[in-house]
Write a structure and sequence with these properties.
Length: 449
């Protein structure tokens, strides 16, 4: 599976659906989803193929200054995007470990390792999950010289690090929330129950001494029957909030003390197979959760599956801290036998408005208007599909994020795609710029900043 750990991690609900979804759906198997590869308001302006050294599965992205950092199961790549229509590879770091989720903080890069290795260093070979000495967790790099990143240290965490989230602290320290899941009695470093996350504290003056300072249990009563940890956490430090996507549960947390998050709300949804990720609106009045039905390896954007499974769920955050369901959103460009399901995205920073850009694997990149949370709709897309245009390479996009005027898509196969949005309603976002952006560490935005 693309994003599920190898530990037999497909939840029972997703597995049952996956078994029935692995063969093409007859009604749509050979039918192109659209008659163009993109809408009139989305333009592909650049593509950088995966480099030979780091050519495994592309995963998530982080942003700093004029640079995009692309995670990969084999390491990471740093791109210079000072000219977005002509991005260039600055460096490639071969450091296998699986997943490759990334977050950046100043000169530090945090890299998720979810497949066990014989040691902490980049050259360590793979070992079985039954090896008690196997390393999984977070590697830390110094990227002050973008052309020559340096390995700093590593921190082991239970069940490894499927995803990680940077959490600001104070002038002396910052934190990394580590999400992982799917324990087994046969895995010495990933024992059940695993209803927790790991919290790494990083002393800013000495990042090599980073260590796990707590592993809070988020589900003391066990949570949903499919929940054995969290898949991903998005924090909104300015609001002291975090939203967790935890397999069978969606949660809210109070992170006013970032070293001691407190769960304040838990929601479940019978239409959700695998709570995958979360995003707040800028005013924190609404939260979008995504459902990775089929584990990222099945065709779910079909008429048969319908619009309410493998979708986004939009919730209103009430004054009392509770979550109230508003609606679902799923692309209606049916993809036949191609892998398609809701995946990673971010807000498009139009002040006072709610727009979202999101990856759907082979369903492409979607631009969504959810100003009315009860009636979200797609207003643009990029969906490279050889069934429509034989000249293009099919897309398979893991994550799509808006950063300083452009959308950057980490494509599993194509490499890095750069898109320009020409939709008039989105132009105010071009006046919002960041010095640094980790999509799972949401900043507050306003015009000109």
């Amino acid at each position: 599976m693309r994003t599920l750990a190898r530990r037999a991690a497909v939840p029972f609900a997703a597995l049952a659906l996956l078994v029935g979804l692995t063969s093409p759906t007859s009604a749509y198997a050979d039918t192109p989803p659209v008659d163009e590869v993109s809408s009139d308001n989305v333009e592909l302006v650049a593509n950088v193929p995966k480099p030979e050294a780091v050519s495994n599965t592309n995963s998530d992205l982080a942003f700093t200054g004029d640079y995009v950092i692309g995670g990969n199961y084999d390491g990471f790549v740093i791109y210079d995007v000072s000219e977005p229509e002509d991005p260039r590879i600055v460096s490639e770091v071969l450091c296998p470990g699986g997943q490759g989720d990334v977050s950046v903080s100043g000169d530090l890069l945090y890299f998720a390792v979810d497949y066990p290795r014989a040691g902490e260093d980049c050259g360590a070979p793979a070992v079985p999950t039954t090896d008690p000495n196997g390393f999984e967790g977070v590697r830390i790099f110094d990227i002050s010289d973008k052309s020559a990143p340096e390995y700093v240290s590593a921190v082991a965490t239970d069940c490894g690090s499927h995803t990680l989230t940077l959490v600001p602290g104070d002038d002396e320290r910052e934190y990394v929330y580590v999400s992982s899941y799917s324990p087994s009695a046969s895995f010495p470093n990933c024992q059940p129950p695993h209803d927790k996350i790991s919290i790494i504290e990083v002393p800013l003056e000495d990042p090599a001494s980073a260590e796990v300072v707590d592993a809070p249990v988020l589900f003391p009563d066990g949570g949903h029957r499919t929940t054995t940890g969290c898949h991903d956490i998005t924090v909104y430090p300015a609001k002291d909030l975090a939203a967790g996507a935890c397999m069978g549960d969606g949660i809210l947390m109070d992170i006013s003390d970032p070293a001691a998050p407190v769960v304040t709300e838990v929601v479940q949804d019978t239409n959700f197979a695998f709570w995958h990720s979360a995003t707040f609106t800028n005013d924190a009045s609404t939260v979008i959760f995504t459902d990775e039905l089929g584990g990222g390896g099945a065709p779910t954007c079909t008429e048969e599956i319908g619009p309410e499974r493998g979708a986004n769920a939009i919730y209103k955050l009430e004054r009392d801290g509770s979550l109230t369901f508003q609606s679902y959103f799923k692309i209606d460009r049916h993809q036949g036998d191609q892998v398609c399901v809701a995946h990673n995205g971010s807000l498009i920073p139009v002040p006072g408005q709610n727009f979202f850009v999101q990856s759907w694997y082979q369903g492409g990149v979607s631009v969504i208007d959810f100003n009315d949370p009860t009636n979200p709709r797609e207003i643009g897309y990029f969906d490279a599909d050889s069934r429509v245009d034989g000249e293009v390479q099919d897309n398979d996009t893991w994550s799509a994020y808006y950063y300083n005027g452009h959308v950057y898509s980490s494509d599993i196969d194509r490499g890095l795609d750069v898109l320009k949005l020409t939709e008039p309603r989105l132009r105010p976002a071009e006046r919002v710029t960041y010095d640094e952006f980790n999509p799972q560490t949401q900043p507050v935005y306003r015009p000109g900043r």
